[in-house]
């Protein structure tokens, strides 16, 4: 993973302008207004996410909703001596800001004061350089979106099928500004496309979708054709017995199952004996811990022990050696905003390298007091998973008997310590016999842990961008002994 050039934000450097969302200059003026309305002596920080979005949604081939929305979301955080509090608003007139200030003041008065003054806000940060903007996405107006919808549903209409989907483009002004001098501002665009095609009898369904910062990188016609083809090929599925199968997971299904693992990469939990990355869970399970309480790091025996890994599995083999999971805000194919809501930086990180757990996320207090590091290691939930060179067609040819899975729906963690998950297959499931797809089959409910699945790996394909809330790049995967526990009615 290559490191990108870094950019420093502090004082008044950098500039970006938005017409439908708060510009850099508007963020500066907003901070001035909040300071003017707040009591003297307060340190104030604003986390700003000002969003414009335009969308078109359709069902049964007809547009159901279309429009544009603008919404500024601003979290006002304030500290004064031994207390601190926050309040979020989406109206930026003086009266709304004044009410937010009163709420913050009331919350401060209800707090027990800390033994020491609240940590000072930081006056500057260094962030990874990232390019999140696309003029093409910003320019996709309502008329173009409506015309695209007509083009995309036409093949389904011609074949007597029902298309449902959405196109959404967004432009967001992301900012963190404070009275100590920090000024971070990054504009970004997002484009999302998802389409489901079903037959009139409700026995066949196909899906495809993807997200990108640049609408031009989304081949909506190709994705619509994939969904239509899956719908036709999945019609009238047959029931087969539950059990353990060799399974070929398409990239979307891989990301659906891998996301709970990525979300669990938490060092504090692990060193408390909680979750899948705890090495000695019996020693600390159920202990109380308050992130942000400086005394908690000192009072917790074992935190930061064993070469800096404490009671976690850092340094241990946890997945198949072919798997590496990383994140980088400067990734040219999957960039993301390089700072969190409080201005803390996101850094390029390799969580798992060749199957070995290398890092777990931790907050600034832990970094300062336990690791003697200036920066936290935060988890954005964006990730890239390494892959291989086998195509899905080659995986199918290698399968004696198994299943091809389009995606996984309603994935829920039922046991956090093992990451055991449940959910259903959806929008296309096929039986593979002697190296060929032979028939569509009814959907299954599954019960699996990504820790087990990605230690049962047969092969990986080329990583591609998929549809998740945060930028995600994953490959298709072939695994053995995937547990399908019961039939599911959903198509």
Polypeptide structure, described:
By secondary structure, the protein is of the alpha+beta class. The chain is 23% helix and 35% strand. The chain contains twelve helices and 21 strands. The strands form four sheets. The protein has a six-stranded antiparallel beta sheet. Strands 12-11-10-13-20-19 form a six-stranded mixed beta sheet, covered by helices on one side. The chain has a five-stranded mixed β-barrel with strand order 9-14-15-17-21. The longest helix is centred in the first third of the chain and has 17 residues, at 94-110. The model is unreliable at 1-6, 8-18 and 282-309 (pLDDT under 50).
Compose a concise summary of this entry.
The protein is of the alpha+beta class. The chain has helices at residues 24-37, 94-110, 135-138, 142-158, 220-233, 251-263, 267-271, 294-299, 305-308, 364-369, 392-398, 450-453; strands spanning 6-10, 43-59, 62-80, 83-89, 124-128, 162-178, 183-198, 205-212, 243-249, 325-327, 349-353, 356-357, 383-385, 401-415, 420-433, 436-440, 444-448, 457-460, 464-465, 472-474, 477-487. The chain is globular, with a radius of gyration of 25 Å.
- Order of strands, widest sheet: 4-3-2-6-7-8
Task: Outline the biggest β-sheet.
Answer: 6 strands, antiparallel
Report the structural category: alpha+beta
N-to-C CA distance: 39 Å
Tally of individual helices: 12
Residues in helix, %: 10-25%
Radius of gyration: 25 Å
**Strand content range:** 35-45%
Could you tell me the number of beta strands? Answer: 21
**Which word captures the global form?**
globular
The mean pLDDT is: 90
